[in-house]
Amino acid sequence: MLSAVHLRALFRQPVRLLTGALGVTISMLIIILLGAISQGVYTAAVQFPTQTPVDLYVAQDGTPRLQTSSFLPAQLAGPIKGASGVSEVHPLIMNLTVLDLQGNKAPVYIVGYETDSGLGGPWKLTEGEQVRRPGEVVVDRSLAKQYGMTVGATVEILGRRFQVAGLSGDSRSMLGATMFMSLSDAQSLMGMQQAVNFFMVRLQPQSDAGAVRTAIEASLPPGVKVAFLDRQTAISQTEDLVDGVIGAPLKAATGVAYLVGIVLVGLLRYNNVMGRLTELAALRAVGATVRQIILSDLLVETGIVLTLGLGAGLLFGYVGGLLIAALIPQMQATINQSLLLQALGSTLFIGLLGSIWPVRKLRGIEPASAFR
Amino acid sequence: MLRLALRQATFERTRFWLGVAGIAAAMALIVTMQAMFAGIEYQLTRYMANSGADLVVTQQGVGNFYLSSSVLPNGAYDKVTQVEGVAEVVPILLMPAPIKYGSDTGNNWVIGVPEAAAFGGPWSSEEGIRFPKGDQLIVDEAMAKKFGLKMGGPIKLAAQEFTIGGFSIRTSRLGSFITFGTIDAVRNAFHVPGRVSHLLVRLKPGSAATAIKESIERADPNLSAWTTSEVMANDRKLSADMGGAVLQSMTVIALVIGLLSVGLTIWAAVTERLRDYAVTKAIGAPPGAVFRMVLVQSLLIGLTGWVLGTALMVVLAPLATRFSPVVMVVEPGPLLQDLAFCMAITVAAVLPPWLRVTRADPMSAFQ
What we know:
The complex is a heterodimer. Chain A is α+β, with helices and mostly antiparallel strands. Helix content of chain A is about 50%, strand content about 20%. In chain A, strands 1, 3, 4, 5, 6, 7, 8, 9, 10, 12 and 13 form an eleven-stranded mixed beta sheet that branches. Chain A has a two-stranded antiparallel ribbon with strand order 2-11. The radius of gyration of chain A is 29 Å and the shape is elongated. The relative contact order of chain A is 0.20. Chain B is of the alpha+beta class. The longest helix of chain B is centred in the C-terminal third of the chain and has 37 residues, at about 285-325. The two termini of chain B are about 25 Å apart. At the A-B interface, helix 2, strand 3, strand 4 and helix 8 of A face helix 2, helix 8 and helix 9 of B.
């Protein structure tokens, strides 16, 4: 039972309570923000294969992922379309290039797609319109903001002038920002008039993907070999690419932040309770048992501190994530739910441990010494 | 007063070390992020820094080494060789060339250098030939470990078979590796006869780089000449627009939140001792002396925490670089900057509780 004595003792030093909660908030902020940025890197990188409703990508033989060079003759569209189980075939140009924008080098994915079908085009238009004809481009919103490109403005891309038809959202990752344009424009810019990078294939309902692959292979001219990437493989291979490039430092950063955050919670709770030891000894001297002190005082205090701290940490972490995404165009912050749950569990455990551990000392204190 | 401050700070050892541990943890987080960011920049520019060249000649307007396509016009080598002040020119061919090994694919860049080149090849070898020869490639030892490649074993590059002739060390870069081959072999593998992507230029002693850059660009307007430092700076800038921005932001966030933790730890440590300070004031110590006492104790905790957190990472960073895929470079500049921030936040965190002591009724200390 929480007696008036315990309650008074608990709230006698509100600053101490607040310091404890602030410590938990800061620890949660470290874990949430660094974890969200780390997760955001992966989320942003897989936007194209995730958002584009394609069942199968056909690529040059040996191509492991969408971000690797792949060259296929454009005329393969016919044989692929004719294969049993294939419903639609759409060519795609997807090339990473470094553009000179206002004297700055910017990594950009040039994506060329058939504007009449729209497959492979922007999945989130935030302003303006889709590409309707050659000479138009939809530019990633953050890239446009960074370089002052507005809808209707003219922009030079690899020596050719384009009109900005619209701006797209969620189309920038650490690998580069995306510029969407008509297939013919992209082919011309990349010097691939008679070639494409990939074919995007949609299957007929209830088709067996394995059987369709075999049918496509059989339909190709003799000697032509291709590779297939289903949607899930395209996503996982992109994640692997990100993992290979920056995964190790991201994981190390998130891991160290997690560890430091948890350690700080434990240390602050321990320090807090150690500061109250004389007070707790006095409670014991007036008849409270160690069990009562733990249940009615320390657990309540820890509960208040952790609830306030975790709540504020979650709130500030969420707001911080939004702020980061708004302020830094290359970044997305995605709350990693499993990391969050782990962090909540660990914080609760370490917080309770840090609070209860010093109680051992209470057993050794002579009750009368509390009043000296 | 100083002796009293020190004695009081270490009187309750557990609490002193708890404060120190909190600050050391925060500093370790900050130094980790800074070291990883510096490690990425270090990896990115390692080839250029070790190339042995003073200038790099590229296709006009291409100022980056990685992630950009540079194809030099025919005759560029002869024109640059004849420029006054140029001592030696090495043509190279840089190509992105993922290495496939079983079901695994490794991100890889291949650099083709002439067999007899004086520079531009691997700068540090572990085993085998030191410079690429014939159809023998020199591969990064970390890549060899990852893919189980053996000395003298086969390796496929752009569908062509090669032999592994040597292992180079520290030639990986941010999730990818550098493989060295002869320029002729690389041209053959990619079916690009005669292609040169960059010229590495060494200047005669005492030559002015700026004047020679202009002379090269005058000799062929389709060329751009850069000092190796300029190319490294451009690559760093491009990297900041890619993955670098993410780590840079994480580093800044870690710094801000880490410093907040330092401030909070100091604040908590001072707050827990308020009664001691109030007693010191009540027995006649002037406010200035009490402040010095609070400050000395807090700075001692802050400084010890900084030393321990930093020392931990100075020891761990080379181990992490050796035994994990993370490259960490601890630089003295950021460490000193962290120290300055740590001390500043310590002083700032001391002020609010100290003001409470100055306003407190002396009698309350004995209640």
